[in-house]
């Protein structure tokens, strides 16, 4: 084997090594961004719970739910690569999260409007909003129960 051949071979191997490193790094970056988005979902969900239960600040409920809704696209784009049918299941949960969060936002907006008119919101409206919060959290749990551990296991060497 000539020196130039050897040099070419070494360069090719170095290139393959660096590409693998780069794609691992990109995946790692995506995972960190995904976890950050989820962490923020958690903070916002706690904030909603706090305000529904005690603070009764439905403007805050609306704002926190809107932040979760804005994260939906990130959850989609940063989600790990999944093969069908898991890809479709994941997508279904993402769509459910979107739908349930949108409904929660409409309830919060209605209640906030009533509050602004200096009236006390009817208690059943608040109960409906709480039920809708339950639907949203159920969606978080549904997706986690299927994908949380599974993804971590898959990522392990
Ligand atoms: C479509 C699926 C899906 C939905 C819906 C979803 N999550 Fe997650 N979530 C995941 C996955 C997958 C992980 C694990 C990410 C990983 O492997 O690190 C995760 C991780 C998390 C974590 C841990 C983050 C960390 O630092 O490791 C929190 C907290 C979290 N989610 C909160 C929520 C909340 C709150 C909701 C609902 C508002 C929600 N998630 C909805 C898929 C989902």
Bound molecules: heme C
Beta-strand proportion: under 5%
Distance between the termini: 35 Å
Helix fraction by DSSP (H/I, runs of at least 4) = over 70%
Q: Summarize the main sheet.
A: none
SSE string: HHHH
| 3D shape | elongated
Mean pLDDT: 89
Count of strand segments: 0
Rg, alpha carbons: 23 Å
Number of helices in the DSSP assignment: 4
Q: Class, according to the CATH hierarchy?
A: Mainly Alpha
Structural class from helices and strands?
mainly alpha
Would you mind describing this structure in some detail?
- Helix 1 packs antiparallel against helix 2 (58-78), helix 1 runs antiparallel to helix 4 and helix 3 packs antiparallel against helix 4.
- This protein has 157 residues and is an all-alpha fold.
- It has one domain: Up-down Bundle (Four Helix Bundle (Hemerythrin (Met), subunit A)).
- The chain is built from four helices and no strands.
- The two termini are 35 Å apart.
- It binds heme C.
- Heme C (HEC) binds at residues 31, 34-35, 38-39, 41-42, 45, 68, 75, 90, 93-94, 97, 136, 139-140, 143-144, 147-148, 151-152.
Strand and helix map with partners:
Elements: H1 3-55, H2 58-78, H3 86-116, H4 123-155
Helix pairs in contact: 1-2, 1-4, 2-3, 3-4
This protein binds heme C.
